[in-house]
Write a structure and sequence with these properties.
alpha/beta, Rossmann fold, eight-stranded mixed β-sheet, two-stranded antiparallel sheet, 9 helices, 10 strands, globular, binds adenosine-5'-triphosphate, binds magnesium ion
Length: about 270
């Protein structure tokens, strides 16, 4: 699909959101490649498996990887009653609901999306305001790296954000970057639900994110090891947490439970 057709779809949709979403979670980090999408996808999947009605909004316009990690390839969004209809994922593990919206369902597979700020803002606005999510318990938003256009648009447009989940790897250079995410959240008045350490292990070390979280008076949600099975499952298009007995799945489930607990308080 070319840029013109995308714009046509977007123009067909009016701005009127009546859907009810209880908890809105932003998964973010200033640094690229630290595992935001892996965490957003597995979190959304885990929530839907626990029976929650869950929506995954992939707000990464230039690198929309969330569908790939869920094994979605040729799905396309369409518009009904002036609303974008999300892709509804069905599998036997999902006792709730799992719906996904992504730029990947609009753009051609290998095409680079070359959009400047205002058009990106318009698309994000449509993704925020004009998707027929229905009633949701949780909306998980997978943000692109950094604190640029998409993150600003989402933080401004999404009403009543429950909070951000900041992901970092444990090495010092990553921790320097993560301060930017913390400051971004604070400046945008987005409460910080907590921080997750990802890819802990011999390569990047471990423990650094917990120390930083405590120093910044932020809740530490837990640590996930660097494990090649996580990479392999991402590549296969399957959430790694379907493997109930893996140690990394257990760690991740504890993180999910902490997130659920903190949203109950808010
Ligand atoms: N704990 C982990 N162990 C091993 N591999 C991981 C782990 N977490 C993520 N990965 C892998 O690292 C790569 C980057 O992860 P991912 O795409 O989730 O990062 P990202 O922060 O969303 O990246 P981007 O900034 O480009 O959006 C992927 O191949 C993913 O499968
Ligand atoms: Mg990503």
């Amino acid at each position: 699909m070319n840029k013109k057709t995308n714009t046509n779809i977007i123009n067909k949709i009016n701005i009127n959101n009546t859907d009810k979403i209880k908890h809105k979670l932003l998964v973010m980090s200033a640094k690229g490649g630290v595992g935001k999408t892996t965490i957003a996808v597995n979190l959304a999947y885990a929530l839907s498996r626990k029976g929650f009605r869950t929506g995954l909004l992939d707000a990464d316009i230039h690198g929309p990887n969330a569908p790939k990690m869920l094994g979605l390839k040729d799905e396309k969004l369409f518009v009904r009653n002036n609303k974008i209809v999300p892709i509804n994922i069905k599998d036997n593990n999902i006792s709730g609901v799992l719906k996904v919206v992504s730029m990947a369902f609009l753009a051609g597979k290998e095409k680079a999306v070359i959009w400047r700020g205002p058009l990106k803002h318009k698309l994000i606005k449509q993704f925020v305001e004009d998707v027929a999510w229905g009633e949701l318990d949780y909306q998980v938003v997978d943000l692109p790296p950094g604190t640029g256009d998409e993150s600003i648009s989402i933080s401004q447009l999404l009403n009543n954000i429950t909070g951000s989940i900041i992901v970092s790897t444990p090495q010092q250079v990553a921790l320097l970057d993560v301060i930017k995410s913390i400051n971004f959240s604070r400046e945008m008045n987005v409460p910080i639900i907590g921080m997750i350490e990802n890819m802990a292990g011999d390569l990047f070390g471990r423990g650094g994110v917990k120390i930083l979280a405590h120093k910044e008076h932020i809740n530490f949600l837990g640590s996930l090891e660097l494990d090649k099975r996580i990479t392999q499952f991402g590549d296969k298009g399957k959430p790694f947490i379907i493997n109930n007995t893996w140690d990394v799945s257990e760690s991740f489930n504890r993180i999910v439970d902490r997130i659920i607990q903190s949203t109950k308080k808010s």
